[in-house]
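Ticket #4471: structure output looks truncated?

Reporter: J.K.
Steps to reproduce: submitted the chain below (508 residues) through the standard prediction queue, then opened the result file.
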Amino acid sequence: MSRGSAATDEVIAAVDLGSNSFHMVVARYSHGQLVIIDRLREMVRLAAGIGDDGRLDKEVAARALACLERFGQRLRDMHASNVRVVGTNALRVARRKQAFLERAREALGFPIEIVSGMEEARLIYSGVANNLPNEDERRLVVDIGGGSTEIIIGERFEPLELESMQIGCVSLSQRFFGDGRLSAKRIERARLAARLELEPIQAVFLRRGWTRAFGSSGTIRAIADSIRELDPASTGITPAGNELLLQRLAKVGHTRELDLDAVTDERLPVFPGGVVIMTEIIDALGVQQLRFVEGALRDGLLYDMVGRMTRSDARERTVSSMQRRYHVDLEQAERVEGTALQFLSQVSTPWELADPLAELSLKWAARLHEIGLDVAHSGYHRHGAYLLENADMPGFAREEQQLLARLVGSHRRKLTVQGLEDLIPPWDRLALHLMVLLRLAVLLHRGRSAAPLPNIELAARRGTLELRFPPRWLKEHPLTVADLLLEIEFLRPQGIRLRVFSGNRAAE
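Returned output as attached by the reporter:
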């Protein structure tokens, strides 16, 4: 584990709230090396607690919160910037989950990011790649989770093809083997369901091709160990070995009769679904051998954190990539960014914007506020918001994307706060202040001039923001005055009083 190079000595932790199990890993990063110092795992089966209406069962929620309280005790003395907690498919699909997320944050002591399926796949690949030799080969990586299955093709540390399928060992097992009964007919129906999920991606992955295949996650470990138990000469998951295991499932008739040391009692109810998914992946992609490898999403999270510590943040690469893709005027973006951050430094305390995400979000929003121009000039702020809301953005949690989209979508014209209530606290309350700062920075650079702005002093209180310009500057810039007067009207309905001064004279 040696991708980093900075001589730091930090203890960092990653918590993976999976659809089947919750995992926590604590590591020390020192002199470019990650050394694992603690691991915890509990099978919570969160996906099994999501009903047909999308709501989380109270008993499962209580089980999850009790687990998080235990994790929280281990993490209690750690700095917030050194801990990342992510939720995956079960929390992606759950409805009306805000109350649970707030209670989970309180139990754990840290906020929870819900990552997209594609981001989950990227993190899984990172975790696996960092646990393999750095060889020049193309790899297929498979991770069968409780609610989703991720398939990735990559080279070294870079993913080339990413896919997250809405099928996992918990969901498939509940659907076809919920009562524990096993039969050839049930297995065939489950295989068909898995086959239908794989069909849209089969051609793309076959066209990419790979040299060797690897699998991560507890399900794949259990499958590999079970095959070795049935065939001690086995060196991995092969079509023949997997077929042997499938036949064993059909023969026993019920999960409780499956007498394999590799399958624990807690994994038994979801094991058949995992075997079926593995079978169809092998068939659809022509996998001849797949080896289990240590490394999963939580390991990918650790390496992502190391990247942020060593100035190799995946989010920065994503923002730069989007700037190129949507032909952003880099000089204008830089001007807006500089002004927005200078404003933030003056109001961060009274407006409660000291959280590092405030500066990062404002910086990224400034860099990307004009991406919508590549779609159309009319309403380009709305086009930009749509792109940011729906794009695959490696490194970004879903909540970070939503915040970024709200900032870009509100940086001009009439200010709307619609959708702010969907942001995780405290951003449902504080995002409005970031919007105001970005709007003012964009307004003041409307002329796209390279000439620097004068020194502008800001003073903020709860519902008021004062801007003080040098004497005579506003008189020499009547268009800016007109824009500021209009901005006063835009902000008033949102409970913000904007006051503008020229020297000691009010221009409001």
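Triage note (M.O.): checked the attachment and the full token line is present. Residues 184-208 form the longest helix (25 residues).
Status: closed, working as intended.
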